[in-house]
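TL;DR need C-alpha cells for one chain.
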Amino acid sequence: MGREQQIINERLRKLKELRENGIDPYPCKFDKKQTCGECLKLKINSSVQTAGRLMAKRIMGKLIFSEIKDQFGKIQLVLQEEKTPAKTIEFFKKYLDVGDFVGINGKIIKTKTGEISILVEKVIILTKSVLPLPEKWYGIKDEEEKLRKRYLDILMNPEVQDLFLKKEKFWESIRNFLKEKGFTEVETPVLETSAGGASATPFKTHQNALDLDVYLRISMGELWQKKLMVAGFEKTFEIGRQFRNEGMDTEHLQDYTQMEFYWAYANNEDGMKLVQEMYRKIAKEVLGTMKFKTRGYEVDLSKKWEIYDYESIIKKYTKIDIYSALKKDIEKRLEELKLEFDPNVDKWRLVDVLWKYCREKLSGPGFLVGQPVEVSPLAKRDLKDNKKVQQFQIIIAGSEMGNGYSELNDPIDQEERFKEQGKQKDSGDEEAMDHDKEFVEALKYGMPPTCGFGVSERFFSFLMNKTMRGCQIFPLMRPNEEIQGKEKKKGAS
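>> reply
TL;DR here they are.
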C-alpha cells in the first residue's frame, strides 16, 4: 500500500469516528464574522470568529502552530496548553489534517516573533478532506495536470488566484467605462439559426422544442445589436461567451469571452478615439501602468498610436500588390514564406494569411486601416477608395487586439456582399458568412450610421503575458484517461 493510500485510509477512519461520536464532519453553515485578511488588521485581544482551510499543522510540545487560508489571506493559529481548552487541543490533534476546513473562535495575539496570530479557544470541523493536498505542487511541470486540476493550482499558487481577480477587474473596467459613456448593456441570443456577425466556423447543434438546427454564436450579437440600432437604441454593448469550432493555440480558443459595442451616429474615427481611451484605462486599472512586456515585445499604450495601412504593410514585407496580384502569385509567395494555407479558398483569404505574417512584425500600439471590402463584408466602404472599408483593428505586440468599423447600413450593398459570401461558402469556405435575409430586411427599415467594435479576452492574456488557455479559469480538457479507464472497468464488472 502506497503512502498516499495510507493517508486516505487514516482520514476515512477519522471521518467514521467523528460520525460515531455524533459530530457532523460536513455541517451546512458557519457564522463567519471576519476574513483572515480582516483578522490580521484587528487590535490585539480582539475576539474573532473566522473560518478557512488548514494549510499547515505543527505540534511542538505544549504548542501547536497551524495556519488557515481563505480567499482574502492567511493567518497563523496558536493552540497553547493552559490558554486553549484541553478538549480543543485534543480534538485538533486527533481529528484535524491539512486540507480540512475549520471554524475558529479565539483572540488576536502577537507571538514572540512578532507574527499576528489567533490564539484558538474553540475549533469546529466544517469539511473533512479525504484526499491530501499535494506537497510539491509548485514543482509540477506538467501544464496539462495544472489546468486539469485548476482548483489545486489556484489553492496552492496565490499568483493564479490573483490572475483571475485581475481578469474580473479587466471586464469590470470595460463595463464601467462604457456605462460611464452612456452605453446600455444588453443580452442577445447564444443560439442562432444563422451563424452571422463574423467569419468563423460555428458549432452546430439541434434545438428539440422547435425542431431546428441551430448554431452557437460566433460574434457577440453583432447582427442583433445592429437590429437594436434599427429599434432606436443608440449605444449598446454586450459581454459574454462566444464559440468558434476552430484550432487552438496561444491566441485562439473555441469558447471565450468577448465584448462588442455599437454606437449610433458615430464612425470608425470616433470609435478609434474611444477605444484608445478605453484600452489605456483598462491597462491602468489592471496593471497599474500603461507599459508592459508581452510575447517578446515592449508595449507603451500611453505613447502616440501608429497608423498601419493594410495594403502598404503587405507590400512592404512580402512585395505583393494585393489588388493586382493573381491568386497563383499569392500562393507562390506563401509557399516561399513557408506559410500554411488552404488552396480551396479565394484570393482574399490568402491575402489575409499574408497580412497575418506581416502583423507579427508590428509592435504597436496602433490601428490597422485600409482593409479590402472582400475581407470585411459588414463594414461601410471608404468614401475615398471604394475598394476599401472604414475599418480599424487594434495592433499590439504583433497581434490583433480588437476590431471595429463603420457599420454597413446600405441594405442593397449588404445583400450583395452576403450573396458573394454565399458563393464562397458553396465553394468550400467554411468561414464564409450565411446570407441572413432577416438582417437585410431589418436594414431596409433603416439603421442610423453606426460604429461597432469588439475585443476578446485575448487582450487580457497579452496584458498578463500568458496564453489564452492559461487565462481560462477552467479550460476545456480531454477527459482524464486514467479516470475514464477506471469508470469503464467498474461498469464492466
